[in-house]
Amino acid sequence: MATIDDVAKAAGVSKGTVSSVFSKKRPISRPVTERVLEVAKGLGYYPSHVARSLAIKKTMIAGLKMPISKDSVMSGFEIQMINGVIREFSKQGYRLLLDTLPEHDDPTQFSIDPVDGVIMLNPRKQDPRIERYNQMGIPLVLIGRPDPIEEQISYVDNDNRHLSLQVGQYLINLGHTAILFLNSSADMTVAIDRENGLAEAFQQSGQSYDQVHVMNYSRRQHANPTEYGYVSLKNIYEPNRFTAIITDTDRVALGVMRAARELGIDIPGELSVIALSNDATLAQEMTPALTSVELSAEMLGTEAAKILVEKMKDVDIVEQKIIEAKLVIRESCRLLK
Amino acid sequence: MATIDDVAKAAGVSKGTVSSVFSKKRPISRPVTERVLEVAKGLGYYPSHVARSLAIKKTMIAGLKMPISKDSVMSGFEIQMINGVIREFSKQGYRLLLDTLPEHDDPTQFSIDPVDGVIMLNPRKQDPRIERYNQMGIPLVLIGRPDPIEEQISYVDNDNRHLSLQVGQYLINLGHTAILFLNSSADMTVAIDRENGLAEAFQQSGQSYDQVHVMNYSRRQHANPTEYGYVSLKNIYEPNRFTAIITDTDRVALGVMRAARELGIDIPGELSVIALSNDATLAQEMTPALTSVELSAEMLGTEAAKILVEKMKDVDIVEQKIIEAKLVIRESCRLLK
DNA sequence: CTGAAAGCGCTTACAG
DNA sequence: CTGAAAGCGCTTACAG
């Protein structure tokens, strides 16, 4: 690869001049510009991003910290969210560095990524990385709530508690109190938030939460979300035991519906189904069309990216944003008679 | 941010020593190592990836060049493929830089990304970027075939022509010759390859290809793939005009099935449906389960990544790999009586 | 409008 | 096992 020096020499100018021709940060005369460009082209010269980054201390790259488990694929939720992040960064001229590398405990191996800021997915409890980014002076925005919540941390999240409170109210108003809840993995903060929200709905309406049977997704037990729904219903359904079922995602609901067909259960006649969906493209195509919650995953991503772009200009900016989820009523739930 | 100099001074050693403590490239005595590490921790020092990259001329980052259209979301195919790429790179210790920035004609704006190699999606005809990467000495692997095909270019691809030849033979053997083909966008090389393959199937069996009606997806006409399938069938179906339908993806087939339900067409009784699928997770959940082609999108990604890793070690390596697609027969096609 | 030179924060061959 | 110094390829304040 030709360097700026090669071009400077071949064009008979200083490298400062070559630099200016490419960066346009200071005006260079027409003839000189043309000569430099021509020489550069002949030599196949392109400025080195790395060298420039070192000099200006900016990379125009934003990082997305997202652990990827060995066996599983990205969920519809993650994909949509990433889509939102990419779209926004792309619009603002940033590239995205996907860091899916597993974490290292060896402090010696923890090198700073070449990024101007990072978005971190699903922070864990007391996540030590948050402090580390802070220490490094790298702007950070979380997707998902930090635990514990702190004033100085920027993040975007759904209000999962409120969302399942609404779902609970909706079902209770339809007369459903015997509910099977196919929740997500127990170790996720969302799972807890959702349970609390549902419990609150029951409490508010004076119903006993005992009528709710909660199950959790587990990667060991279930091959995939659809199987989770299918197997769960097949195994534990008895007529009249549940009148409604809340699923983690629409994929889970897909499995539930398949099982229901095989068991001869009419949806929504005998059983109402509602999904706390992660991937809304499917819901409207199912038969019956699935009533679900629209999480706006893409918007979560977009908003996180927007906040990060602001923070990369001014580290002191802090913004916390709750993205509204909305209940989309379709055809899979019915008033209990 | 503390630099290597700060640490060196505070620890009373040279920066070469600090460097060695972190890179482990030469042995440093136990006591010195500990002192350096302690000082580094106190100062919140982490090595700068950018500076190191400049010095060693390697970034351990691979690029994924993938244009993202303003309005559309990634397809299931793209997502799975990216998944494969990420997984393989992650395994090999590389990070992934997603470059979705639109292309610039201004040569002045074309800066080299901080990557050791790149994977490029869907190369266009006579794609000028291929030559450019070559010129820059950056290892390149394509996903999708280059046009024209050249000996020195590495790529992985499906054999789309052969794949639709197989599908054609399968349908013809079932007695279907009046076929509606809901193909992908006309401007993609896959669309052409597929048509050729299907035509070949007809020719081989001595059937007239005139019985095939080909349509192309168009972003302007169709809101999304599902709508494409739905609208197409609604608009042009007349009893006995077609006995089988080949769809671009399973999403398109989903729309076809919805339209068929509304029109009272029995699948597969009256109409056989088969998808040249991009996203196989759906096919098995549909009713009836969709017969489709498994493209192994994830494997395309994995293989491309593997080849790139090799090329990043030795630029001269060239590998071209065809990933076998296989027909997965489920329930949506039936022998024509 | 252009040049000379210091600086960005690392690595590494050379010397001891 | 450790240090001093040159080098990686850019940018930029200073000077003219």
Automatic annotation (TrEMBL), chains A, B:
SMART domains: HTH_LACI (SM00354). InterPro entries: HTH_LacI, LacI/GalR-like_sensor, Lambda_DNA-bd_dom_sf, Peripla_BP_I. Keywords: DNA-binding, Transcription, Transcription regulation. The keyword DNA-binding applies. Residues 2-56 form the HTH lacI-type domain. It comes from the Bacteria. This is LacI family transcriptional regulator. It comes from Paenibacillus baimaensis.
